[in-house]
Amino acid sequence: MAIPNSLKRFFPFLDWASSYNRQSFLNDGTAAIIVTIMLIPQSLAYAMLAGLPPQMGLYASILPLVAYALFGTSRTLAVGPVAVVSLMSATAVGAVVGPGGAGYVEAAMLLALISGGMLLTLGLLRLGFLANFLSHPVISGFISASGILIAVSQLKHILGISVSGHNLIDILQGLLSALPQTNFYTLFIGVISLGFLLAVRFYLDPALAKINVRSEWRQFLVKAGPVFAVIGTTLAASQFQLAAKGVETVGRVPVGLPQMQLPAFDMDIVHALLLPAFLISLIGFVESISVAQTLAARRRQRIDPNRELVALGAANLASGISGGYAVTGGFARSIVNYDAGAETPAAGALTAIGIALATLFLTPLIYALPKATLAATIIVAVLTLVDFEMMRTIWRYSKQDFSAMATTIVLTWTVGVVAGVASGVLLSVLLHLYRTSRPHYALVGRVPGTEHFRNIDRHDVETCETMLTLRVDESLYFANARFLEDQVYAAIAQRPNLKHVVLMCPAVNAIDASALESLEAINERLEIAGITFHLSEVKGPVMDRLKRSHFLSSLTGQVFLSQYDAYRFVSQQNETATPETPSF
Amino acid sequence: MAIPNSLKRFFPFLDWASSYNRQSFLNDGTAAIIVTIMLIPQSLAYAMLAGLPPQMGLYASILPLVAYALFGTSRTLAVGPVAVVSLMSATAVGAVVGPGGAGYVEAAMLLALISGGMLLTLGLLRLGFLANFLSHPVISGFISASGILIAVSQLKHILGISVSGHNLIDILQGLLSALPQTNFYTLFIGVISLGFLLAVRFYLDPALAKINVRSEWRQFLVKAGPVFAVIGTTLAASQFQLAAKGVETVGRVPVGLPQMQLPAFDMDIVHALLLPAFLISLIGFVESISVAQTLAARRRQRIDPNRELVALGAANLASGISGGYAVTGGFARSIVNYDAGAETPAAGALTAIGIALATLFLTPLIYALPKATLAATIIVAVLTLVDFEMMRTIWRYSKQDFSAMATTIVLTWTVGVVAGVASGVLLSVLLHLYRTSRPHYALVGRVPGTEHFRNIDRHDVETCETMLTLRVDESLYFANARFLEDQVYAAIAQRPNLKHVVLMCPAVNAIDASALESLEAINERLEIAGITFHLSEVKGPVMDRLKRSHFLSSLTGQVFLSQYDAYRFVSQQNETATPETPSF
Question: What ipTM goes with this model?
Fold first, then answer.
């Protein structure tokens, strides 16, 4: 039976479910097992990073994955708790109810619900373009800054000391002053874990390759590194009674699946969470779509950004009602999912089953898991977020873009994540407006003997003292409308013999109402000064719009199809007007 | 003795002072007399509109004019209190210290000082471009909305009732509920004044023309209308003891020149005034520069926007230390000044002397001047601000621009002037970003037998299934970088035989770091999908910048000077690659 396309649009799974077969299931199942093994320690660790009890990380990896499998357009994206969103969640909730304060858990669930509602709304209203305002330097700077902030914030768990604060300065000060309270059992566990994870990450693959282990197995063992660290340190902590020696452990985790329940709605808290929820939604979306597009392109598949918003919205709503917190598509686990051969989003649903089984049966075993191990897992994971090479690249490419990036980084560290992102966005927009407010422009003249017109400052061209041609290489809109006026008035003030001004528009893609007003002002003022105003090489869509105004009828001159037409017209005018060439 | 140009740049008066002669003085003097006569009632009226004692309007018309004469680059701009800035001043100061509250006068002076300081700073830092963010629809909508708001707010003086409120709804409600308290003596004075002023404005000129009165005299009499209304109603009020019958009059105005003094600096008040001061500065500057440019163009003179900022800053600082309030260049009085033959800013200085003499000798005479007369003056003056035709024009030209205008108008009326302007600016920026985030683009093909390439949807062109050419008609930057990616990925997902993608860039004036990142992502993902990525017709400055990145070295394809080159290259590739054309 053919499924109507409209239904497929809302439930993308209908697209692949009909052709789902045993082989697809085997592939998805294999991928699901590998992702589950990778996701268990990550879920526990990111919940800790978010300041939440460990089971919330597991809960956030069950129902949200099912929701994404139903609505997502990416075949291989793996959603769940991720580092940056966990940090943003901790900052937002901590600012509202105080770190670890009463209602902290409920506020985190509420944040997921609000973010989910926003994502869903953005998707249904097709407002995905809003994410575009997060320019690449801002995102990239923010992710790098967050990576360092997260790594530094986890040092307290490695040292076994207690430090609060959400910005780098507070955390560093806290670390320094609490350093004497370092618990050396904890530090030992932490350093061993860190060393082990770094060794696995950087040396395991080549080492196994030497002894001819198959590539898939090598990859699996590398990704399972955190699981071995968790098992090893849990056994050690339990064996040597480290909890009694001051090593903080995960402690009792409730057994069983999450209860379906809505958090309490406190309107003051909802209000305070709106802005952070919006930024979490945008950042989460941008990260997720970028991963999804990377993977989709490899198989020439298509991602629909607005459907992705809906799917991420559904995933966050599912998280918020099932005891989880804010989730998004994760980079590392999606790659693992893809590499492990996942064919369809069913892999995500199978992963959810895996995590659910873990929640049912494994939670009693992690009682003695040291927090230092989880901190080490986080630190090693977030190191990949810090991209110094990108900073160098952007510095070389554009100082303006770099300044937006640097502002984002500095404010993320010194003030907080919301201030960092918000200031970066604002600065990006201002710099864009500033750049286009002073567009590239040139006075042009004719290349002798041709129909070409070039910048008089760069080329040896013919000009004429009764005619001035200005070429503006930018769309004309409010930010540069007056700049254009200034240039024209400056040019005519220096040229007493001027009779014609031509505005050459081959690079003008749009003229807004402000620029139209400026063109009208130029036309009127030039007329008073006895100068005719022409346009040349106006693009079709721009001309169509100009026809909706009175400008063309009040224009003292003409609109020429080519600058050469304008040149010939003015030449003829000069000939008939010159007294040295009497007409009798 | 030649004056160095650097000195002239800072003191533009040096430019004209050296050639000043008797004729210039006579011309400037005549203009000054006419402007003084027009300015006296206006100064009193606008001070009332700003909620200030009448003498502050006069004070604001003395020293600021001298300051502008020293620093201004416009030969004929006349500065002083104007309607819109007076309204904004009343709203800002009223919001901070309460309408007519203690410290109201000092706060208004402080506002002038802050605004002056900002204008001066913007000018010295050459930040005049910031005013560009006030798009024409926003300015135009704001001025129209203010005109109606001002006219309605003055009805209380015509009716002789007491009404407070700074938005249209509050004022209209206040008017309705206080309507029964109407003072009919006041209403009589108000209606007579209104009728007289409207008659003078619309019928006096043609009537006098009929009896062959000379044009200059007609203009003078029309502009002097408010003076006759002031004299007539003052005499009537004084004769019939109208003050005793509840007609509100100006009352005792202190005789003498303003005292030089700084207002008290209360940092809380300063802080609260910063945003309104900034908006007043920008709006005042935009209005002033627009008048100045209109007049300068008539005589092919040059206005330097950044020097104008300095001059307006000096004028406002002068106002703030001499008992005045925020000032800017006024449209009506500048036209009068120009038409009356003013040659140099000395006319402004002479006007200042005129107003100073009025402050010294005329203030005792205006004791009995009814406020209703001043309100009538304001209402007739602000009617010119309301521009319904502009609303229609913008509606026809662009619905986007109209929406920014409508938002400004509605919020100015319902919330207040700051909210109106701020929301308009924000919406303009967002709409600009939205527009450029979905740029015009086209898949193009070759016009058969030519080297031209056109939109495949509009023209009958040749295409080839191994090659896709996308032309984007907009600069590439963060707001549209992902849109470009989406289009490319969508296009390749539908074309299984695709081997080459060409991005045609003749309208791309800039590529920022976000767009560069997108191009790199496209290049990389196309490579994985087995597709070569090319660029064509890249502009010089864009190419220069791309050379600063690694993009060109990682590009799988080439950068072609013309699209035709790209076409020929792909055709050759096809020929060598097609198995039907064996090479042996």
Answer: 0.79
